[in-house]
Amino acid sequence: MRTLTLRQPDDWHLHLRDGAALAAVAPATEAVFARALVMPNLKPPVRTVADALAYRARIKAVAPRLDPLMTLYLTDHTTPGDIAEAAAHPHVVAAKLYPAGATTNSDAGVTDIAALAPVLDAMAEHGLTLCVHGEVTQSDVDVFDREARFLDEVLAPLVARHPGLKVVLEHITTAEGVAFVQAHAANVGGTVTPQHLLLNRNALFEGGLRPHHYCLPVLKRERHRQALAAAVTGGDPRFFLGTDSAPHAQGAKESACGCAGVYSAPFALGLYAEVFEAAGALDRLESFASLNGPAFYGLPANAGTVTLVREADPVPTALPFDDTRIVPFRAGGAVAWRVLPR
Ligand code: DOR
Ligand code: ZN
């Protein structure tokens, strides 16, 4: 049987939600990943260090082996003082920029990015990483163009104005996103999800409307998927694992106005292994999953290991979620690599 042993990986972009939903999904992440960068788009958002530490304690209560690394949700009211406080706390490692209206629970996000300059200066000064949802929000911009437009119109000028800032372009979905990261120095990194590496936008419409393939940024053309796969399997250390696993109840997805988000956490590492295997680059999976992220954040790699086996791992059609169910990525199918229990 073929096996693959890696340093234990981390998930550098994860939605865990709260309450009963948190309790339902967090154990799947701690079964595989040592650390997770936890997104702050709760209702209300995680805005302060106090919010983040309280949320962290709720996560630890249901997933005690996971080391949750917290992010603050930037708003129009975030101050340089909030940043200094966050940077002084080892459990808070980043702040998240949601352009207002870009995605789930982003209403309280930033409406005037130029006005954020003093906050970004403080982040650069204190070494707090900026994680970016990179899409413009104007309704007249084609949804498939929103990432590329954001890079040109918002992120390029932002990075130029704040050259000392560490920036992660999250869930990159386009060749332009890949090129943006590659064109910058080591202070600009990028995460890539399993779904954007495995699917193109045809998967949204295969035999009918597929709500479980809908996420933001939305899936793109095949040429973009190929650019992403080439980037992550090519060994560039600026790309690292971030699932963007984003659970929503089955009914909220299978709806006349379905929520954005793909729930991949329980099978994510095996899904990434498929991508690296297809590229003949399984020897580079460890860098992407376990080494590049910690290096970017200035943290040590994990001491432990995980082992994958080349053996079909069946994906259930649904999993329990709060008082309802959640449909995971590739529900009813199988993943080619299975993670052995730790
Ligand atoms: O598809 C997505 N779901 N994209 C995001 O940016 C947010 C996420 C969520 O929180 O559900
Ligand atoms: Zn996300």
Features:
single chain, 342 residues, alpha/beta, TIM Barrel, 8-stranded parallel sheet, 3-stranded antiparallel sheet, 11 helices, binds (4S)-2,6-dioxohexahydropyrimidine-4-carboxylic acid, binds zinc ion
Task: Describe the fold and architecture.
The chain is α/β, with parallel strands linked by helices. The chain has a single domain (3-339), classed as TIM Barrel (Alpha-Beta Barrel), CATH 3.20.20. 33% of the residues lie in helices and 18% in strands. The protein contains eleven helices and 13 strands. It has helices at 19-30, 49-62, 80-87, 117-126, 146-161, 175-183, 194-198, 222-233, 250-253, 268-278, 285-297, and strands spanning 3-7, 11-14, 35-38, 67-73, 92-97, 129-132, 167-169, 188-192, 239-241, 305-314, 319-321, 324-326, 334-339. The strands form three sheets. Strands 2-3-4-5-6-7-8-9 form an eight-stranded parallel sheet. Strands 1-10-13 form a three-stranded antiparallel sheet. Helix 1 (19-30) links the parallel strand 2 (11-14) and strand 3 (35-38). Helix 3 (80-87) packs parallel to helix 4 (117-126). It is globular, with a radius of gyration of 18 Å. The chain starts with a strand and ends with a strand. The mean pLDDT is 97. The site of (4S)-2,6-dioxohexahydropyrimidine-4-carboxylic acid has 10 residues, from loops. Zinc ion (ZN) binds at residues 13, 15, 39, 244, 246.
